[in-house]
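STRUCTURE REQUEST FORM
Protein name: 4736_t:CDS:1
Source organism: Racocetra fulgida
Requested output: structure tokens
Priority: standard
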Amino acid sequence: MTEQPLTTNTLPSRLQRNGKNSLSSKSLTSQLTEENLKLHTTVGPSPREAKTHLVLVYVDLQKQLVALEEQMRIEAKAAQEKFTMSLPKDTPS
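Status: completed
Returned output:
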């Protein structure tokens, strides 16, 4: 396989300048070689591994959230009981 540069079509980009749309062109060039293709396909994890990782991270975060919510409920209940105990005994509930 011979190494040849892959040139994409010229892409127009519209940017607002001074209230007007101007048209500028940029040509994107990259080397499409076996080495670059192999590097591109092996750099990141596989989609299955990435999805599994994201699900596990989400589950761990949800466990932490549930634990924090339970701690907040316990603290709120303790604060309510402390407040109730601080009221005078002859105050109607």
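Reviewer notes: Residues 47-86 form the longest helix (40 residues). Residues 8-16, 21-25 have pLDDT under 50 and may be disordered.
Form closed.
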